[in-house]
Amino acid sequence: MFFPFCCSPHHTSPQDYKKFKLKNLKSIRDFLEARLAATNAEIETVERQMATAESSAEAS
To answer: For the chain, what are the domain ranges?
Structure first.
């Protein structure tokens, strides 16, 4: 992932820098939320597969 803090604006006011930083922090949060959602979905899938495998083993 690209962290935009390495390219901060030069010669800007403190207020502009804070806006820039806030925008980038929100972008990072959005990226992490998407990764977390994908991880949660994968966990649910594996748990479902394990439950199906266990019920199949019991039926045999």
So the answer is: 26-60
